[in-house]
Records
---
Amino acid sequence: MTANAINNAASDYELAQASARGNMAAFETLYERHHRRVYSLCLRMVANATEAEDLTQEVFVQLFRKIGSFRGESAFTTWLHRLTVNHVLMHFRKRGVRMEKTTEEGEISEIQDIVQSMSERPRFVDRIALDKAIGDLPPGYRTVFVLHDIEGFEHEEVADLLGISVGTSKSQLHKARMRLRELLNKKI
Amino acid sequence: MECRVVVSSLSDYIDGRDMWLSVSEVREIETHLGTCSNCRSVKLDLTEIRTAARELPLHTPQRALWTRVANIIETELPKSERRTRLEMPELGWWERFKSRKFTISLPQLVGAGALAMALIAFGTSNIPTGTPGRNYITGGQMALLPEEDQIKADLERRLAAINARKVKWDPQIRNDFDKHLGKIEESLKDSRQKLLTNPGDMVQRQMVLTLYNEKRQLLDDVERLKW
């Protein structure tokens, strides 16, 4: 059996152990398996391909440095997922990205949405349009939407990651969804 | 319950009505939705957005990203552990080389940047102080810069030796080498033509020098690997 075939058949945990011993081929296999998920998460959170690539690079370098600490208690994907999210959030903090505040303006826009929707019919959501619209969201809304609706974190986890209350997380998510609805309506 | 209140509660209703809303709130919302098509439309849209978000495709970064990761990690591996790498060191280098951004990709941004790069590459002491705009006619082809003939002769001699060995290379490496060399030579031809049209163009002059330096570095790299 070739070395490549051995690596391809190995579990993430086995590859992580091999990587921790300095086996680059094993780490490359891990990269091949997971880089798209990491990159997609970074891309949707920062909405910039170049920035997302830089962040993905940093995540995998950090992964290599920390991979010896992965003990297999959780799934490797979960561990990597959390590593990626934390890294992007740290990036946001360095850049000074702030969460959008809930204001009366946001509430007024909801009413406008209702009025607008009075002449509209339900529609099929174009996933490509949705992906583009996510990139057009304000950073704070986008972060919560990506973490909750795309990556599957619960509000308690989102709140913990972002240092906000559960109520704020829920509010931001709702406003993100309403904004996306507005953006998707404009494309039709 | 008013539409405004219902709409503001819809995300909680969709995501976990049992968790986030009281029994009475759920009942009121459902009663309202039963009579209000507008709010039903909003609910449907938000549900579709949530569903679609879970089914979004994965994106793929550039292939060269792994090379960047590997380069950084390589420097952190102890020498004794680098033997576990399965890929050829030369190929690893070649992957790095392929991801290089050539200055020739910026001809439209030629200006201070190109001038600065040329000065760094050659050092001001290496740039002949011949009169700008004066052409040096040698052989059958006009040399636009002092010592250009000498530079070209040296590069052509080295390239001839490399071309003789190139037939034995891995086809992918050979193709990549030819592609990069082709880009340099195309840009060099373009810059020389502009300099010929306007011999006083100092920016193009420096661009030509930079491109010769790029070509020299390409050949240096290949010769260092003893391919």
Note: Chain A has two domains: 3-95, 104-186.
---
Amino acid sequence: MTTTPTADSFHVVGDDIRDGAAPTGPIERRWDDRKFNAKLVNPANRRKIKVIVVGTGLAGASAAATLGEAGYQVVSFCYQDSPRRAHSIAAQGGINAAKNYRNDGDSIYRLFYDTVKGGDFRSRESNVYRLAQVSVNIIDQCVAQGVPFAREYGGLLDNRSFGGVQVSRTFYARGQTGQQLLIGAYQALERQIAAGTVEMNTRHEMLEVILVPDADGTERARGIVVRDMVTGEIETHTADAVVLASGGYGNVFFLSTNAMGSNTTATWRAHKKGAYFANPCYTQIHPTCIPVSGEYQSKLTLMSESLRNDGRIWVPKKQGDDRPASQIPEDERDYYLERIYPSFGNLVPRDIASRAAKYQCDDGKGVGPGGLGVYLDFKDAIARLGRPAVEAKYGNLFDMYARITGEDPYSEPMRIYPAVHYVMGGLWVDYDLQTNITGLFCTGEANFSDHGANRLGASALMQGLADGYFVLPNTLADYLAGSPFEKVADDHPRVVEAVQQVQERIDTLLKINGTRTVDSIHKELGHIMWEYCGMERTEEGLIKAIGLIRELKNEFWTNVKVTGVNEELNQTLERAGRVADFLELGELMCIDALNRAESCGGHFRAESQTEDGEALRHDDQFAYVAAWEYDADGEGRTPILHKEPLEYEYVEMKARSYK
Amino acid sequence: MKITVNVWRQKDADAKGAMVTYPLESVDEHMSFLEMLDVLNEKLTIDGEDPVAFDSDCREGICGTCGVVINGIPHGPEVTTTCQLHMRTFSDGDVIDIEPWRAGAFPVVKDLVVDRGAFDRIIQAGGYISAPTGAAVEANNIPVPKADADHAFEAATCIGCGACVAACPNGSAMLFTAAKITHLGLLPQGQPERDSRVIGMVEQHDAEGFGGCTNIGECTAACPKGIPLDVISRLNRDLLGALRREAVGS
């Protein structure tokens, strides 16, 4: 006899947790107080202290460069062939900062307020306020490095507006802001490599974290195990602290706007060693991506949200209307965002815009192949501003669209559809960006900290650089003031054990020799996640998904085919290791989504909506961060939920309204 | 459509390589070039053969990771990155040669994967502005004329893919080096280190084994980001000035 499991049978509840590093007092004083109270490391001692930084995106490169400059010995790792290629490079639209250069009423407080509200009251006030404070320093820092932001004729910096806000606070470099900011951080990093303060290891992938107990029995992160992706050599690196800046896990969906190599392995390995994974189900589905064109598709391409400044989103009013866009008269078009959300119109936050597009398509009004698309139309903008002005603003995006689809967006509207873009979830960290494992820090998209249940546009770049340039260098020093710690010998049992774990896993993967390719299993996982843990989630669907993922995990470990050997450049082996971790993470995402029986931000539970279909939060039950502990005894089947209650002293919790 | 690909296969840096032919039966015209290689690799894997190693990451033309020589042209017949090239550019029955970047300073790692570490070392030799974190002045205290900012941005869009080197008969990396000299040299923030930057980067460029520039212009023709040839003129001017100032000790 089989019984349907209940929603709460997939986890157990552990003790609540608190952010032990969180400062109190007036919010505008907290970061200054924390910095003042943080212990310092004397410059002469910094030379004796080693820090490992995994990842060279905005969060990792800026941290490695700044720590190297401060005089620490930094050892940096990336899986790419150069630190300049990390996926921050693909961010298009811009970076927010509360400079108020437009004199439009912006302030640190307003950026803080917008971000807390945009995150649907599921982020920490203290963290977000600090982010808003530091935002202004980021722009100064980047300009000093030579980042060529867009400027006005007077030579001063230009701004534009972005979704979810009513001020212009976004700094940009055409549609390539991420590229320019990353090149700035990369150059700062290369400068430190030349100075000998940073040792760079490219084409190296972190596969395990090494924990070593100190004399008091405290488990500390003291190193990592990496694989040299060219030779296959398994190396160990030990240090006084480990920083994970390894990015997000959107590729759990197979199709996403992430890079092919973006993965969860570094954070998932840390999770399996005890680091809590927070809010894994919070996924950002970006409304403006190029729709899927075929089964062979390897990734989805984002069209920057900035396009919503001038483009108007619409669908035909009639279901199944297959006339070309140009033949559908004005009065037969439904500019549904402008209609439903008159005050924000096309600039509503991402989660709302994505869901609205899904509903239109579910209602049979979608356009393009399979009816999975809506129009993003620049006809009015071109008429109002002239084609050259539109070209100057969005030229590279229009070119990209034309190249991928073979259609000309100047003469016919773009077709767009939502796609997985960013994850708000990640490793749980305290105010100091330290995980619950002593000495293990986590920054950028890899942590969970600042965006709550939904990230506003142009805030990812802000957070990555805030963490790396300004927050971590201060808070890490406080931890390192107690170091250098006793050196960890290469033959320490914990080092040997970690290497052995890595080696065994690789051997197992190579021995299975089944009949299914890694990609075919990854695609199947992606379909499950998109169907049941995507834009809309239900209890029934999530329970089904957990079962399907468990079966697929079994299929993977018994029937995957990994060709070649370890001792070579083996891209199949690399992918297999990542997909193995995605399978486990996908299961936890579904368990988290199942537990959170409310809708908030990017997490939409069909059972929890208002009469007109908007997300309905349940603050009395779910105003907490869900921090999951790995269930080592049950191989992850029954994770332990630790709740960190969220309190709002400054921003009143209320239903978001963009109408 | 049906396509035949001839792919350079080379086990590792020391092995001798060769072109190997693979027929592909059903290629969709909307596939990207790299998705066509994904399909080939799925087939090879099922057949128990070693898939073709090639680099790619963002697959949206900005990270600079991908890049192969297609029918003798870096990134193929369109001015774009390999990942943004689509099979609709080709016709049913086409035979396509696929090779790695060919340059002494970019040794082959495996199959179509090369080592471009030399680019990072050129940047290390001065391709930055020394701006210690936290020491920056208020951003709008450094006004930059819009024309300079736009021109600097244009040069800064280099993605470091290496197509310029692969296209150059001399295997020169002058377009890459000059793009950075131009980006930083046009900005007021870049002035204090302008001389040491150009001397350091050009010395490193030569030490890496890249060839000299003879103004052929193949680099700019192959550049997916359209970095103009005149950045090299700017580099030459900067270099001459810097060497003269170094010689007279001013």
Note: Chain B has a mean pLDDT of 97.
